[in-house]
Design a protein that fits this description.
The chain is built from five helices and 13 strands. With about 260 residues, it is an alpha+beta fold. The chain has one domain (about 5-230). Strands 1, 2, 3, 4, 5, 6, 7, 8, 9, 12 and 13 form an eleven-stranded antiparallel β-sheet that branches. The chain is globular, with a radius of gyration of 19 Å.
Length: about 260
């Protein structure tokens, strides 16, 4: 893994955005909305403002080196909320949008193997973008710090209203559960773009950085969006390569 000053600069920019957080998600009404995390069971939901705009996120991808993002403060808040949740029903996703001009919607993808090249028709996607915008506005109204907790499944800030297909606007499931707890089992992360007018289908683009898929996952240390395996998986990979090299050297000595 190479060290990159450009990637370090992008990471510092993201950290600065999080440090200067306000208790409101940028809904994307003027374009360039912020990423936010949602989790819910049948009765309660948790929303966390990631304080990173679409443009800032994409700039971090364009910088050199592998993307590797996590958020301070997420784990304590999320774990406290989990204590009162039916985890067998839990679903989670990450979303962002803008609703000015061409629509951009960033989403997790529950099964990257069935990610289609196109999404729903333009009218449905623009409706979904507006619904994401309106939901983030409602969540911001009950947000304390970066966290919005809603304990009514009929409240407009209840994240479960979005559902697995983002207000029925998407043709694939965007959600995961607590089994998505490593890079290997994490959710793919992608962008859907839809024209400002017309009915043409939206185009999905999976995020890739340095040749690796960008994925999102939640583990004991918090929330991650990255294009690199966590350290334990890297260590296993290196150990495996070491064993292969050892076997090759033994074979060469015997020849």
């Amino acid at each position: 893994m190479t060290f990159s000053l450009k990637k370090l600069a992008a990471a510092l920019a993201l950290a600065a955005a999080a440090t200067g957080a306000s208790a409101a998600i940028d809904s994307g009404a003027g374009g360039n909305g912020e990423l936010f995390f949602n989790a819910w069971d049948a009765n309660t939901s948790f929303t966390f403002d990631l304080n990173v705009s679409i443009n800032t996120f994409e700039a971090s991808l364009a910088a050199g080196g592998p993307l590797n993002l996590s958020w301070a403060g997420f784990a304590p808040a999320f774990n406290a909320w989990l204590a009162g949740v039916n985890t067998s029903e839990l679903e989670w996703s990450i979303l962002a949008t803008d609703t000015s001009g061409q629509r951009r919607m960033l989403t997790t993808v529950g099964n990257e193997n069935v990610l289609p090249a196109t999404n729903n028709d333009g009218t449905s996607l623009r409706t979904a973008a507006g619904a994401i915008r309106d939901f983030s506005t409602e969540a911001s109204l009950v947000m304390v710090g970066d966290v919005a907790i809603t304990n009514s499944n009929t409240a407009p800030s209840y994240a479960g209203l979005q559902g697995a297909n983002v207000f029925n606007g998407f043709v694939f499931d965007v959600t995961g559960d607590l089994a998505a707890n490593s890079y290997a089992s994490g959710l793919a992360f992608q962008k859907t773009t839809a024209n400002a007018t017309g009915t043409a289908f939206g185009i999905n683009t999976a995020y890739v950085d340095d040749g690796a898929a960008v994925k999102a996952w939640v583990d004991s240390e918090g929330l991650h969006i990255a294009a690199v395996p966590e350290p334990s998986e890297t260590a296993m990979l290196l150990a495996g390569l070491g064993l292969i090299g050892f076997a090759a050297r033994r074979k060469a000595r015997r020849a």
